[in-house]
Design goal:
Shape: globular
Oligomer: single chain
Number of helices: 5
Strand content: under 5%
GO molecular function: DNA binding
Structural class: mainly alpha
Helix content: 55-70%
Largest sheet: none
Order of helices and strands: HHHHH
Protein name: Toxin-antitoxin system, antitoxin component, Xre family protein
Distance between the termini: 11 Å
InterPro entries: Lambda_DNA-bd_dom_sf
């Protein structure tokens, strides 16, 4: 389960636009929104690309964002 709040915060800090991230992942803006909002799951390859784009190097932060067991 994706920690939507934390992921959106990191994206905002990065200054990247959702459309740019979606294009880099090879998906539509709408598909990205569905994944961010836990309607669909991210693939491992998408998580890897996003971590590179968002400069997420800390494995604890990566786990907190993409493998959350409880989100508010």
């Amino acid at each position: 389960m994706t920690n939507t709040v934390e992921l959106k915060r990191i994206i905002k800090i990065s200054g990247l636009k959702y459309k740019v991230i979606a294009e880099k992942l090879g998906i539509t803006y709408y598909a990205l929104q569905k994944k961010i909002n836990n309607i669909n799951e991210f693939k491992a390859s998408e998580i890897s690309i996003m971590c590179n784009m968002l400069n997420i190097k800390d494995s604890n932060l990566k786990e907190k964002i993409f493998f959350a067991t409880h989100v508010e």
